[in-house]
Amino acid sequence: MYLNKALLYGNLTRDPEVRALPSGQQVATFGLATNRTYKNKEGQQQESTEFHNIVAFGRTAEVMGQYLKKGRPVFVEGRIQTRSWESDGRKNYRTEIVVDNFQFGPQAAGAGNQGDNRTDEASQDTNTGGDAIQYPDDEINPEDIPF
What we know:
Layout: E1 6-12, E2 17-20, E3 26-39, E4 45-57, H1 58-67, E5 73-87, E6 90-104, H2 120-124
Parallel strand pairs: 4-6
Antiparallel strand pairs: 1-3, 1-5, 2-3, 3-4, 5-6
């Protein structure tokens, strides 16, 4: 049995670009940056960053395009794929991660909707896990309860 699986957790380097294929299927492309910290031979802490090309199709592409923005953390699970094409007599290659599944990462505290037009209800539907239940500041009067 063979295995082609990639698991990445990082931050978007640009907003997802959503387009439609000739078949009508949606495709989203964006970049993802992952960091690695390690100690060099002298014992000093070093950090290196890798940049990944991410591609999603169908409903996954639509959701990613709607809710993900540059800088937002995301967990991506998918497969590694390398495409090749010829341009100006030269062969080009591009290695990318094709998304099978993903999860939103936590939003920064106080980030809110950051100018996008989502409602709080739509924000809670994304299953970020970091959203807390917001209770009203007013005290509830038992006489106001209709049952």
